[in-house]
Amino acid sequence: MEVSQILVSILVIVITSGLLIVTGLRKQPGIGVIGAVVVIILLLLLRKEGLSAIGFSQPQNWGATILWGLIWGTVIQLAAIIIIEPLSEKITQTTHDHSVVENVKGSWLAFMQWIIIVWVLVAFLEEGIYRGFLMTEVAKILGDGTIALVVNISLTATVFGLSHGYQSRSGIVSTGVVGAILGIIFVSSGFNVWLALFTHGFIDTVGIGLIALGKDKEIREKIWQKS
Fold first, then answer.
1. 147-168: per-residue pLDDT in tens?
2. What are the structural domain ranges in the chain?
3. pTM above 0.90, yes or no
């Protein structure tokens, strides 16, 4: 890359990350996402590139991609409930704040509304921003060597965690860990965003479903044998 291109990449990474982190910590994540989308669209237009430039290329097999997304999403969400969230709460001495989706308890209408939001907005936009755009942009600067990829995954996972600051300090840590896992999936997919996107969608679908049924805390208590 030319020096000017590197400087542009650094600038858009800083602006996008800053927007996401600041609005997330201020509990206004939607504003950050909208701002990031505007930055990305303007940059793609300036470069005369399409969505394939940020990982939205057709996967080799849609069925397998969706199936693996379901498998990984379910496994990661269960791991979050059983291991990741309890450890993050212990480390930060705070409780993971799920209040934004608490209205799904006992309400299938609210549950369905959230599932639509997850699949139409959250999974698509967040994976397009954090993995598709940020990780691809960082890779243009650092390359795709092992150390560079570790730095890339760690950096974008940190941004992902901090931008979920509205979920408390525990939420920042646990979301950051999940972001790192999604980053690994994205890299393993050859910087194709679809598997990470479906995995993210199923993580949220399973998680919100368990909250709606009141099973999330029940599962954790059974595993950790709490009364």
1. 999 999 999 999 999 999 999 9
2. 3-224
3. yes
